[in-house]
Amino acid sequence: MKKLINKPDDLVKEELAGMAVAHADLIRVDFEQNIIVRKDAPVQGKVGVISGGGSGHEPMHGGFVGHGMLDAACPGAVFTSPVPDQMLAATQAVNGGMGVLHIVKNYTGDILNFEMAAELAEAEGIHVASVVTNDDVAVQDSLYTAGRRGVGVTVLLEKIVGGFSETRAPLDAVAALARKVNDHGRSMGMALTSCTVPAAGKPTFELGEDEMEIGIGIHGEPGRHRVKLASADEITEMLAAPIIDDLGLKSGESVLAFVNGMGGTPLIELYVVYNALHHILHGKNITIARSLVGNYITSLEMAGCSITLVRMDDELLKYWDAPVHTPALRWGM
Amino acid sequence: MTNQDIMRWLEHTADVLQENRVYLTQLDSAIGDADHGINMDRGFTSVRGKFAAMATMDSSTCLKTVGTTLVSTVGGASGPLYGTAFLRAGMAVSGKQELAAADIVAMLEAFLGGIVARGKAHPGEKTMVDALTPALAAAKQALAEGASLAVITQRAHEAAAEGMKATIPMLATKGRASYLGERSIGHQDPGATSSWLILGCLAEVCQDML
Hints:
The structure holds 2 protein chains of 2 kinds.
Chain A: H1 11-22, E1 27-30, E2 35-38, E3 48-55, E4 72-78, H2 84-94, E5 100-105, H3 108-123, E6 128-133, H4 153-165, H5 171-183, E7 185-191, E8 211-214, E9 225-228, H6 232-247, E10 254-261, H7 267-283, E11 287-294, E12 304-311, H8 314-321, E13 324-325, E14 330-331
Helix pairs in contact in A: 2-3, 4-5, 4-8, 6-7
Chain B: H1 3-19, H2 21-31, H3 36-48, H4 51-54, H5 59-73, H6 78-92, H7 101-119, H8 129-144, H9 149-166, H10 190-208
Helix pairs in contact in B: 1-3, 1-10, 2-3, 2-10, 3-5, 5-6, 6-7, 7-8, 8-9, 8-10, 9-10
């Protein structure tokens, strides 16, 4: 295992320490509670917006803490949900008197831990609304699974909802906007390699030189299908087609197009995928209103990419464009 | 079982989960995200750190302390599931100084009840419920037959082993394994395996009490 780390057990702690000093102008890290909080929290009169999840997906979620996006993030062990104590501490830290929104990705661990945390917060008199992201079209949403995973839409939702919360909108409106983004967004990912969880010491699964995994999640777990390696154009078609189909995207509609790197794929390749995506959407007369290309929701050093499309309207555009200043995203200020 | 016996069970469990850390993680690589062994070891290492304080607690408080510790340290789905299990187990033996066979069975029933209440899994979904459900049934049967605690817990352990192996051909419909669809078939569930290990430790401690 070749990684840029010291001892595997110290990885998350040292990462948080690095973030704390690198971005001391934007965030503070509470090492006792293991949470990342925006420097000016709690912002009075504003709904607090928090999320959390396993580490290993950086910059999600800690890199999205700051003005216009998340008020706090809870980092768990690598690929492991954080615990209710962290979420409760984060909820308390961002409580500006208007309640707190929990953005929860649909994984059993995240769901169960956030559920327990919301119960604890309510018991303390803090009103919590929870929104679940479940945008992954690789998984059949049926009685026979734990439901669709929360993946790329989570990033876009955190930005849009964070932007809206800065207007001092009330909790139910903020939660409603979050659900709207989730309802209008879909994603699909693929991997060229697995990744290695430091404490495990070896890749979670093995892929041959000429193989790729379609329909991956973000935790290095195997996906739905293992197929022969194809060209970037063919891969983009394989990812985009089920998204467009599931969203029911029609000619004349407008989207936010997000091509995300899983961590181990260079930007040069992500732009090739974006180009192919652009052609596919253009061919269907679907306008790309806004784009995002880069590593935003990763899986350690996994090579691969995911595509997310969100159907946009004026409201979503307005809050996407709203000013944001976090370690990973900054515009308008 | 006295408080000391419960402590012995927990100490043995901490040791066994540490020894099986890599094994559980390997099982979790096949159909999960390769962290079950790591997480359970971390949780029970934290529990180990509280043994000195727990030595002066009654069994009920001991078990509840294990529960809250696991919730606070394990993370993932296992934290809330096993955490709630131990919390409910503790509640089931509240106020008792010595736990008779019927109390231990009631404790196991509450343990499983906590997992089902939190995770809402049914038997057949390829989870820890598939090891614990037959284990509880075997324990109740043995209790009804007037068997000793050693026999009751041994039967529970054996039934858990059967249940754990029965998860191999199952299609996962809960948790991370469910995303794999049919690829989850042919692999033993890591949660069922850790449940079997925990019950094995209980059986061994009860054997030694003879």
